[in-house]
Specification:
It contains six helices and two strands, in the order H-E-H-H-E-H-H-H. By secondary structure, the protein is mainly α. It has a domain of 118 residues. Helix 1 runs parallel beside helix 3, helix 1 runs antiparallel to helix 4 and helix 2 runs antiparallel to helix 5. The longest helix is centred in the C-terminal third of the chain and has 29 residues. The termini are far apart.
Length: 190
């Protein structure tokens, strides 16, 4: 098997496990709503199409920017697997408070321990690590553009989520957490 096959299989496994895990969540009390979520959802769809579908196209944007190197490929597989593991650590740590959208769950509280003590959005951080590895492995301009759009989408979602949670669980508590813990990158901007 090549790194491309292993990384594709890793993505399929992660997505299947993530969907299966979605049944373990507390009831939703409040949602940000479709209108608020539409911008990041559009960004995610466009980014995914560029990254995963656009890379299969022939012509401009589909030519590799660097040679396909198996050693680099295996390193990128390792980065993606570490990213997936980080997402699952965060999801298990969050427990039934997890949601796919911007929502307040029954019993919602500020979680600032475990991976949430490293970055405020560890699931996004882990997914972005895996997406970055995939984009680098594909190595085309379209894949890199797709990754950039996905970064923008996750940043947009994180900002919406933070505004929503500030209102729902307390602006002072969330502001103190945001001053203490970086948003997406350990040791990055707060």
């Amino acid at each position: 098997m090549t790194p491309h096959h292993v990384l594709s299989l890793s993505w399929l496994t992660w997505v299947a496990s993530w969907i299966a895990g979605s049944f373990w969540a507390a009831p939703t009390q409040k949602k940000a709503g479709w209108a608020a979520e539409r911008p990041f959802r559009i960004q995610m769809i466009v980014g995914a199409l560029l990254l995963f579908v656009g890379s299969a196209l022939k012509g401009y944007g589909a030519a590799r920017l660097w040679p396909d190197d198996a050693r680099l490929g295996w390193l990128l597989v390792a980065v993606a697997v570490i990213g997936f593991a980080f997402t699952w650590w965060a999801r298990l740590h969050l427990g039934p408070l997890w949601s796919a959208g911007v929502q307040k769950k029954e019993g919602h509280r500020l979680v600032d321990t475990g991976p949430y003590g490293i970055v405020r959005h560890p699931i996004y951080t882990g997914v972005l690590a895996a997406l970055g590895a995939m984009a680098a492995l594909i190595g085309t301009p379209l894949a890199l553009m797709g990754f950039a759009v996905m970064v923008w989408g996750f940043w947009t979602k994180a900002r919406l989520e933070e505004r929503f949670l500030s209102v729902e669980i307390g602006a002072e508590a969330y502001a103190a957490y945001a001053r203490r813990v970086p948003m997406l990158l350990p040791f990055g901007p707060h």
